[in-house]
Amino acid sequence: GSGWMQKDYEQYGYEFGTAGSRLDDLAEALPRITSRLAKLNPAPLRRIPILIGGQGERKTLRLVAEHADIWHSFTNATTYPGKAEVLGRHCADTGRDPDTVERSSGVEGRDADTLVANAEALAGLGVTLMTVGCGGPDYDLRPAETLVRWRDNR
Hints:
By secondary structure, the protein is of the alpha/beta class. It contains 6 helices and 4 strands; from the N terminus they run H-H-E-H-E-H-E-H-E-H. It has a 4-stranded parallel sheet, covered by helices on one side. Helix 3 crosses helix 4 and helix 5 crosses helix 6. It is globular, with a radius of gyration of 17 Å.
């Protein structure tokens, strides 16, 4: 996506700008990124997928349709369908089958029952990759453990 952690930009000496300007920069860079990945030496053992995260309907989802292998949606079961529909329209505009974009999302919830219910709902909508926040700097890995147990028992 366009990046959101201003500290990262400052540490690397990049202008933080606005979300829109950062997305414009990403759009300009994606052809170079794709070209450069194809020329890696030594060549990777597999094609390196491009993941774009975000849910902006005009720019981000259009970039996903044009370039991404994986879309990280930052949605939940309520908001995902509308964003997926917008992505589908961008895919149609670019001649891409929307089913060729793997779907990823964060799973909301801190307790096991909520996490599992939310993961089930997202999986039912076609999300195949899921993340969960574990906080920091004192990480609580229980949500991740819950999600992994759910995944392994499906």
